[in-house]
Amino acid sequence: MSTAAAPAQALVSAPALRLTGDFHHAGRPLFSGLDLPISASGWTCLLGPSGVGKSTVLRLFAGLDTGGTFDGEISASDGTPVATRIAFMAQSDLLAPWLDVVGNVTLGARLRGEAPDLARARALIERVGLAGHVDKRPASLSGGMRQRVALARVLMEDRPIVLLDEPFAALDARTRAEMQELAFEVLEGRTVLLVTHDPAEAVRLGHHLFILAEDGLTRVEAPASPPIREVDASETMEMQARLFHALRGRPA
Amino acid sequence: MSTAAAPAQALVSAPALRLTGDFHHAGRPLFSGLDLPISASGWTCLLGPSGVGKSTVLRLFAGLDTGGTFDGEISASDGTPVATRIAFMAQSDLLAPWLDVVGNVTLGARLRGEAPDLARARALIERVGLAGHVDKRPASLSGGMRQRVALARVLMEDRPIVLLDEPFAALDARTRAEMQELAFEVLEGRTVLLVTHDPAEAVRLGHHLFILAEDGLTRVEAPASPPIREVDASETMEMQARLFHALRGRPA
Amino acid sequence: ADKMTLLLDWYVNPDHGPIIIAKEKGFFADEGLDVEVVAPADPSAPPKLVAAGKADLAVSYQPQIHLQVAEGLPLKRVGTLIASPLNCLMVKDDGPVKTIADLKGRKVGYSVAGVEEAQMRAVLSRHGLTMDDIEMVNVNWSLAPSVMSGQVDAVIGAYRNVELHQMAIEGVKGRCFFIEEEGMPSYDELIYVANPELMDKAKIVRFLAATERATQYIVNHPEESFEIYAGTAPELNDELNKRSWADTIRRFALRPAALDHGRYARFEEFLKENGLIETIRPVSDLAIDVSVQ
Amino acid sequence: MSASSRLTPMQRLRDALVAVVVALSLWQAIVWLSGVPPFILPGPWRVAVTLADNIGLIADHALVTIAEVLIGLVFGALLGAATALHLMVSPAARRIALPIMVFSQAVPVFALAPLLTLWLGYGMASKIAMALLIIYFPVVSTFYDGLRRTDPGLLDLARTMGATPTRTLLHIRLPAGLPAFGSGLRLAAVYAPIGAVIGEWVGASNGLGYLMLLANGRAKTDLMFASLFVLAAFAVALYALVSWATRRMTSWSRESLDTL
Amino acid sequence: MSASSRLTPMQRLRDALVAVVVALSLWQAIVWLSGVPPFILPGPWRVAVTLADNIGLIADHALVTIAEVLIGLVFGALLGAATALHLMVSPAARRIALPIMVFSQAVPVFALAPLLTLWLGYGMASKIAMALLIIYFPVVSTFYDGLRRTDPGLLDLARTMGATPTRTLLHIRLPAGLPAFGSGLRLAAVYAPIGAVIGEWVGASNGLGYLMLLANGRAKTDLMFASLFVLAAFAVALYALVSWATRRMTSWSRESLDTL
Ligand SMILES: Nc1ncnc2c1ncn2[C@@H]1O[C@H](COP(=O)(O)OP(=O)(O)OP(=O)(O)O)[C@@H](O)[C@H]1O
Ligand SMILES: Nc1ncnc2c1ncn2[C@@H]1O[C@H](COP(=O)(O)OP(=O)(O)OP(=O)(O)O)[C@@H](O)[C@H]1O
Ligand SMILES: [Mg+2]
Ligand SMILES: [Mg+2]
Predict the structure, then answer these.
(1) Least Cα separation, residue A84 to chain D (angstroms)
(2) Residues on chain D touching E141 (C-beta within 8 angstroms)
(3) pLDDT by residue (tens digit) across E142-173?
(4) Which among C38, C45, C167 has CB closest to E114?
(5) 3-state secondary structure string, chain E?
(6) Taking CA atoms, what residue in C is nearest to E35?
(7) Where does the sequence pass through the membrane (chains D, E) (predicted)?
(8) CATH annotation of A14-247
């Protein structure tokens, strides 16, 4: 089961990324002088207060319209463009209401005119716990189920760079932990940028941690042990508390 | 500021509620023999795995269409109907895309043909941290900002019963804590049913805690101290860990 | 002055000469009448509106009054505007149809007015043909264009004083078979109809007197009368109207009030033979001479 | 656009009967109250009698018109859908062809009639073309509007998935625009019969439009209204059919009738 | 439905000019290639000359038609919107009135012409009524479809907020349905001129429709096409205006043209 969920193709090498520059909405600066390095083949976690521009950063990497003006550079270590090699999971689930679960999970293949790998899709759907719901349309799914469909869909995409915008926010603690493990396993070797609000999640998954705040970007050292980390290891717990306070403690 | 955000009217008495019965989707049972008591004037937190039926329970209390069949009873301690006395915040933000932030927050008043209390709306918008965004439309807001607008809107509704479906899920840790405090303050004396995935949140806010699982409802004792509780009080931390394990530890 | 409403059969054209001239020269005013002239696009509407009491008079066609009375419309012919058929079977002069007999196996266009099949049957029978020998095609809005472009070989329902000139101006020479020479009973092309229960005979008598004067004026002063006619609206002042005017003058009824009983009896007979009406009505049900009764 | 989709067939039948009765009563009431003479608007009873007396004649002509309408509707819908899709992929088509299309739509068909008959003759082709022409623009316009209003989030997603514009159109915009296509198709169902009838007026020797003209020419108002009635009844049936089909086609689109 | 809303006025003007040139070339090409005689379809040059020669005459008639169209459009849009809203609140209206409306729409206007003139006379009223009648149904149909497709989540919300059906209609469904109303209005802008022209055919002594029929009857095809050209140009201008206005009215609705 877990092998079937692994990508069918050999892995393309995952580059490091970097975003530098300023961004403003009609003159109102969102961030300036930002320099965000994403290291190759690992999980970089981006945290920060609501509305600070995390999703905007993700959309910039994905080459999507942000409604504002970006003045800077987005580059990959191998010198080739970024936006064509990404898989993107947005903050809202963005399921096609007319497709059932299988249809949504295999949408990428159909959009590229490839034959969808149905076996892999079914395996992933089983892994995200929706085996009994394959032919339901999004309207008949709960919020967390919808998010898991979107997760399965992004995991189906076999891309070297993966951008995840709060992919586990609608899930209960247990399902969330399982999904984190699944994503970590499937995305091994990829360059992953994860936006999250959950310090525990960041500490559990991140090779590198950044906090984006109104006053700029701060790097936070990740624990020494490699992810994926045990939730209740003392090192993790301590780190989590530190991170939590780093996030909460900023002056109001 | 915090006084302005308080309801203008005298408080109507908040009843206790109870939901008993079975529910199925076209013959597929979701829960059966459920008996969920919600005590008067306090926060009851409902946790449980994704897709188990938490949102369905909330919609049943709200008298909304669930796409399935409910066979049972919903009653209030004072014997009057429930659905006409509730304020409801759904899992998705449900903002009207054509209204700006103020317009969305004051929608309820306009729908009832009342004059919107603009001062209170502005105070609430300021409390949810969107003072600088009053005239933005939802499309120009971040995910967390949209959720805060929806929160301000439900807090504007001066109702004895309040149903909240993961109202803080899209917020970063710090904003989340602030919003919890705001909601707790504004909803004082109300009967609140909160669906959440975050054990810390449940422990922080709940007078009563329930876990809904595939095999039925379990009551979990809340800490002895009254909410709202300190996040890092030892009692809270311990309870949180217990709850977390109760949630994770179910057989796969 | 007494107000009066007259519905034309169609847009203003030289066929309406006496009405326009009577109005412009003040002959109506001399009779103490203030006549409002309204032009519709659908010729079948005006008789209905007069029957419904919405106007005093309408310009219509003799073949129509027979059918309308048969269907129970409260209408009678009270005057004549054009006292001979204008309708003709029109072909291209250089086309294949030299005689009626050449129509065998060919297409004949028409614009539905109700009696054209009967007309064709009458014309064909003179030359040993039946309706099965030709194909009738409803070309509704475009009689002249359809024959000019060769889509049909002939059209019935074209007006000899209009369509022939129209084709000539477009550079296509046309030719008319005059249906009254080919076996059709003759009839009044344009008549005035009124609702016999509602009409004010005295007013109609005055109206007809004014148009009679106008007709005389036109006959006596063809050029001046055209100037007056063309001066009423800029869109009327053109080559076609000029040619058509000259060709129409001799067709106006010189005695608009006079009624030829025989014509109406013969036409009623003709329609009965062709199955278009079921019973023969006395002429007095169809037409009256308002000046005597 | 039709009654709620949550009704049973029996309820629908009952509603349809009520609608018929109400319509006939309205019609009769207008005839009585306004005192309009029967040769301008005959009452329902007279028309019913005429319909019964001429049922064979009317049925023969109706079959011709129905065939024209159905063929015109199918081709018009296909052509309209293809045009809307093309407008979506081609900015040039959008900027240049769209104004031309609007321009051509504002030309009343009677002006095109000689042209159409010149090219297509007096057979069925010109009537089908007329039915097609009359429904083409509503289908294009509503479907194109629907295509344009696709959730931008889904389009972003398609883009990150490496979709070509054509595949985005087929897999995202097309299904997202189907409810709007349904709107256009329902309009088309109402107007296609008028198109065919106009086609018949332009030149024909059979069909309900021809029969109406003939009846009008012979002052047989009863017969004209009987043909008209059959035409309108056919339009309602066609509308119900198209409504049902489009509803099925877009069952995922959550229409909220009973929850107001 | 119009070119992208992200174009500058200069670009729009350029596009419009290109569209005009393309349209005229197409027209000329048809005339040359098909060898259609000028009495059926005159070329653009001939029409332009005729237009210039008769500019005063055509302008006089055009003003009448424009007035009729604008009045008809305003009233048709208002009446159509009111009907769609009413259909939404009243299940009875939906089940009974809707089929009757479809039925009445399928009756070609020419059949109603004597009735209309009987009631409204030969003045401007009957032309306005005709323009109104022709746009009424497209507006009702598209707007009603839009009202029906409102996000059920928002309706649920309104319900929990204690809204009456009427207020839900005004504050939720109405704004949510505005983009669809815009679709209907754009269709209406194209068809209202045809309505007025048909009204003029029924009986008038001025207006572009009158001029066209007159020219047609006199085989002055050049003049007819010149009038037709002015009519169609007016329709395009009206469409552009309505398009701009409806776009502004629904600026919140995210239309995704350039992101395909
Ligand atoms: N219209 C429907 N038809 C069939 N099944 C449905 C329908 N709507 C919801 N369901 C099912 O009902 C179940 C409960 O959904 P609900 O939204 O109540 O879950 P939940 O506990 O809120 O989950 P989450 O935490 O993911 O939001 C799900 O399994 C879902 O698939
Ligand atoms: N189209 C727009 N016009 C103007 N401002 C916009 C627009 N889109 C987004 N913004 C603003 O950009 C800012 C950053 O938004 P973004 O979605 O990147 O935040 P975020 O960090 O992802 O927040 P969250 O955690 O709440 O999702 C917000 O303040 C938002 O108001
Ligand atoms: Mg975000
Ligand atoms: Mg839920």
Answers:
(1) 7
(2) 1, 183, 186-187, 190
(3) 999 899 889 999 999 999 999 998 999 999 99
(4) C45
(5) CCCCCCCCHHHHHHHHHHHHHHHHHHHHHHHHHHCCCCCCCCCHHHHHHHHHHCHHHHHHHHHHHHHHHHHHHHHHHHHHHHHHHHHHHCHHHHHHHHHHHHHHHCCCHHHHHHHHHHHHCCCHHHHHHHHHHHHHHHHHHHHHHHHHCCCHHHHHHHHHCCCCHHHHHHHHHHHHHHHHHHHHHHHHHHHHHHHHHHHHHHCCCCCHHHHHHHHHHCCCHHHHHHHHHHHHHHHHHHHHHHHHHHHHHCCCCCCCCCCC
(6) C149
(7) 16-41, 61-89, 96-122, 128-147, 183-203, 223-245
(8) 3.40.50.300
